[in-house]
UniProtKB/TrEMBL annotation:
Origin superkingdom: Bacteria
GO-annotated cellular components: cytosol
Protein name as annotated: ADP-heptose--LPS heptosyltransferase
CDD domains reported for this sequence: GT9_LPS_heptosyltransferase (cd03789)
Signal peptide annotation: none
Transferase keyword on record: yes
Gene Ontology MF: a single term: ADP-heptose-lipopolysaccharide heptosyltransferase activity
GO terms (BP aspect): lipopolysaccharide core region biosynthetic process
Gene3D superfamilies on file: Glycogen Phosphorylase B
One family name in Pfam for this protein: Glyco_transf_9
Keywords, ordered alphabetically: Glycosyltransferase, Transferase
Length: 343
């Protein structure tokens, strides 16, 4: 097993929850060349992962015929010894089968499993464990199947050296006017179009409540297309707390270095939350309580004690209603949580 392809070609949050899998695989097989197959928008952060040797960009099912054919040819030319597909669908199954990769492992789900020659029953729909644990189970299966001793990974999974962080802090101060004498609390009110989140009024109440008890400055972040949302949130809190809008950056790697400068990060279950958690920044996350989206299923990669999760009460009519999260309770718990790291 000299060349191994690991496929996680979906959203950024899902990809971040595969980092322990890359760590386990590379640490257990240090001489192997590990390649990650990801979509274009995830590739920049994949290149920051210390356990990935090469990144291949998947043009995805949206590619035109010529581009798709060229990509399939390039994939086949790599002559991978094995492919581990961390989630299974028809597109990935056909892609790896056509590439003639001799060992193809994926979760045993749906008809797509017929094109994989190694399968693991997982029943992810039960959401009985975190997503990153389901991913790790596939790596454990692969290593055991090939007689390789398993090296269990440990976080933090992403870090930058002190010089990089000092430079990034200086850049943020120059661009936004942040105060270096205060703690920086990042707040991401966007959803990325895929996750439930608090309303802007809830975030405003949370920011003002936390600001009354903690001497911090709030950094309101925004992804592409979310700039107006961050600006609106700023208007709701301006004059009552110290806050800045951070809605421009030099790409995903630059944004990630900025998150590494945060003293606290608050968001819904989105890509930025999972990036911050991989950096082991203390995080406060907001999740639905429906089974497929709970804080358990999408548990962050923070080390023990550095994550706080909230969700609405369980119930058919309430589990996705983020308006039912008690903001006063969040303020009280988040204040104590932040205080443990800011004292």
């Amino acid at each position: 097993m000299k060349k191994i392809l690991v496929v996680r070609n979906d959203k950024i949050g899902d990809f971040m929850l595969a980092w322990p899998s890359f760590a386990m695989l590379k640490q257990s097989l240090p001489a192997a060349r590990v390649t990650a197959l990801v979509p274009g928008y995830t590739a920049p952060i994949a290149r920051l992962c210390p356990w990935i040797d090469e990144v291949m960009v998947d043009p995805t099912a949206k590619a035109g015929k010529e581009e798709a054919a060229a990509f399939r040819a390039a994939l086949r030319a790599e002559q991978f010894d094995a492919a581990i597909c961390l989630f299974s669908n028809g597109y990935n199954a056909k892609l790896l089968w056509r590439a003639k990769i001799p060992y193809r492992l994926a979760p045993a789900t749906k008809l797509a499993q017929l094109l994989f020659n190694r399968r693991l029953k997982q029943r992810r729909s039960q959401s009985a464990k975190p997503e990153f644990e389901y991913n790790l189970d596939l790596i454990r299966f692969f290593l055991t199947d090939n007689g390789i001793a398993i090296q269990e990974p440990h976080g933090p999974y992403l870090s930058f050296d002190a010089a990089e962080l000092d430079a990034q802090r200086a850049k943020l101060v120059a661009e936004t006017g942040l105060d270096t004498e205060r703690r920086w609390c990042f707040v991401h009110a966007g959803t990325g179009g895929s996750a439930n989140n608090l309303s802007l009024d809830q975030y405003a109440s949370l920011i003002k409540g936390l600001g009354r008890s903690q001497p911090c400055q709030f950094v309101l972040t925004a992804g592409p297309g979310e700039e107006a949302m961050a600006a609106s949130l700023y208007q709701k809190v301006a004059g009552e707390v110290s806050a800045v809008v951070y809605d421009k950056n030099d790409g995903l790697q630059d944004f990630t270095r900025s998150l590494a400068c945060a003293d606290l990060f608050m968001a819904g279950s989105t890509g930025p939350l999972h990036i911050a958690a991989a950096l082991d920044v203390p995080t406060v996350g907001f999740f639905p309580s429906k089974r497929s989206a709970t804080p358990l299923r999408w548990k962050t990669l923070n080390t023990e004690g550095r994550h706080l999760a909230f969700c609405p009460p369980r119930g058919k009519d309430s589990e996705t209603d983020m308006g039912l999260i008690d903001i006063d309770e969040v303020i009280a718990e988040a204040t104590a949580f932040a205080g443990r790291y800011w004292s």
